[in-house]
Specification:
The protein is an alpha/beta fold. The chain is 33% helix and 25% strand. The strands form three sheets. A six-stranded mixed sheet has the order 5-6-7-3-8-9, with helices on both faces. Strands 11-12-10-13 form a four-stranded antiparallel sheet, covered by helices on one side. A three-stranded antiparallel sheet has the order 2-1-4, with helices on one face. The structure holds adenosine-5'-triphosphate. Belongs to the ABC transporter superfamily.
């Protein structure tokens, strides 16, 4: 469980996070979404005790991170994948982490296998690609077999196979009952991965919503009738917004599919097609964050 309550972080001239509250429960993957600079990393750093909040609190497993006894056994994190000695091998890097946290060396072999770095474990980190570096960062996060995981943009630099692998890994970790918070600035990376979304924009909480609800929000109804103008007029009278589609169907907003069917029946109009059309996640995300994008291509 991660709990963020009234969290605010101000830098001298900048508000990075403002009065943000949300809870991340165990057993599901929570996606932490927001455009570049919206405050995701700052929030995660506050949860991990790496950044001191200006106001509010962030706790993990009921206490501030710094009060955990052997933090690595409780909480695994990927926040700054570059924070490692480039002259060390991947194996030596993980072994040093294990030893300084009282973890058995056998865990190093376990996580090296788990993340697929077996073939390069004894090579120096300096020569690692971005994707290999991400895998190493994920290995470090998993080293203590923690019950809570915070991963900041874990698929950054991974190829499609790597992205698929991370998705599967996150789902498995959640199914095991762990708490999984994973950030991204791309909705596409959250599709098929997150069960729930916490969305930030310019440091503020924009949404804390189940993935299914977000899809439902932008939903409309598609209806086709040989007497479309009569049906459209009846739907208007029922309070719906109706827009004719190029293929002759009507798009109806503001009524459920059942209500549209009832209106058609009452108007004595035959219906040849009736369906709920969910918005794409990308469209739902853009609708949420559109006003809150700080860095926009071409912006003055
Ligand atoms: N140490 C710092 N000093 C001053 N400003 C900072 C500092 N760290 C972050 N910020 C600012 O706070 C805001 C939020 O940054 P943060 O890195 O938390 O966003 P993010 O959502 O993780 O972005 P990205 O997706 O680009 O990683 C940004 O405007 C950033 O410039």
């Amino acid at each position: 469980m991660i709990e963020v309550d009234g969290l605010t972080k101000r830098y001298r001239t900048r508000v990075a996070v403002e009065d943000v509250s949300f809870t991340v429960p165990p057993g599901r993957v929570t996606g932490f979404l927001g455009p570049n600079g919206s405050g995701k990393t700052t929030t995660m750093r506050c949860v991990l005790g790496l950044t001191r909040p200006t106001a509010g609190t962030a706790t993990v497993l009921g206490v501030p991170y710094r009060q955990l006894d052997v933090p690595m056994r409780r909480v695994g994190a990927l926040v700054d994948p570059r924070a490692r000695h480039p002259g060390r091998t991947a194996y030596a890097h993980l072994l040093a982490l294990a030893q300084s946290n009282g973890l058995p060396a056998s865990r190093v072999d376990d996580v090296v296998d788990l993340v697929g770095l077996g073939a390069v474990a004894h090579e120096r980190v300096r020569g690692f690609s971005l994707g290999m570096g991400q895998r190493l960062g994920i290995a470090a996060a998993l080293l203590g077999d923690p019950e809570v995981l915070l991963l900041d943009e874990p698929v950054n630099g991974l190829d499609p196979e790597g992205i698929r692998w991370v998705r599967g890994l996150l789902r498995d970790l959640a199914v095991e009952g762990r708490t999984v918070l994973v950030s991204s600035h791309l909705m596409s990376e959250m599709e098929d991965t997150a069960d729930h979304l916490v969305v930030l924009g310019r440091g503020r909480l924009l949404a804390d919503v189940a993935m299914a609800d977000l899809l439902g929000r932008g939903a409309s109804v598609r209806v086709r009738s040989p007497r479309a103008p009569v049906l459209a007029a009846a739907l208007h009278r029922a309070g719906a917004a109706v827009s004719p589609q190029p293929d002759g169907a009507l798009r109806v907003d503001g009524l459920s599919a059942a209500a549209v069917g009832d209106v058609a029946f009452a108007a004595g109009v035959p219906v040849h097609e009736l369906a709920t059309v969910t918005a794409s996640l990308e469209a739902a995300y853009l609708a949420l964050t559109g006003e809150d994008v700080e860095y926009r291509a071409g912006a003055a």
